[in-house]
Amino acid sequence: MHIILVLGLLGLALGILILALARMSPQARHDLALWAFWLLIVGLVIFLTLTGRLPWQAAATLGILSMLQWLYSSWRARHPRKIDPPDDPAQATMTRADALETLGLKNGATRTQIIEAHRRLMQKFHPDRGGSDALAARINSAKDLLLGNQKNGD
To answer: What is the reported pLDDT for 108?
Structure first.
């Protein structure tokens, strides 16, 4: 009887998860799927430990490793690698080659590629997400310089 109840609850949760995933952005879908995966693993470890199929020492070890992984990923999200701007203002003048390198593009990049590279980098290095103001300004300058040299079409 208990197993039927647990399976029913799991089926209900899976149905709600599938409905939620269909309405989310790809990044939110990825985050939710990762969260659900870890929740499933934790639930499985707790279940196996309580039923005596997994020694409590192994469960504790898995818990500690999971906690360390979570702490590391949280720390990395709050402390992204920052690229410092040049100290010399004369070096701050950006060339087209510098702009392409900043956005990670090759010569001949289209307008769409420039906009997409800018969007991707700003999502990663925006000051509101732990990035630096100087790096965000450099990314914006690179986009402006490259798009200023292009006409409206690709």
So the answer is: 87
DSSP sequence for 18-72: HHHHHTS-HHHHHHHHHHHHHHHHHHHHHHHHHTTSS-HHHHHHHHHHHHHHHHH
Quick one: pLDDT band at residue 91, thresholds 50, 70, 90? Answer: very low
pTM, rounded to two decimals: 0.40
Q: Among 79, 85, 86, which residue's Cα sits nearest to residue 136?
A: 85
Rounded CA gap, 139 and 100, in Å? 10
Cα radius of gyration (the chain): 24
How far apart, in whole angstroms, are the C-alpha atoms of residue 48 and residue 29?
28
Nearest Cα to Cα of residue 83 among 69, 59, 63, 104: 104
Q: Residue 54 to residues 3, 6, 41, 49, 113: CA-CA distances in angstroms?
A: 19, 20, 13, 5, 51
Does position 90 have pLDDT exceeding 60, yes or no?
no
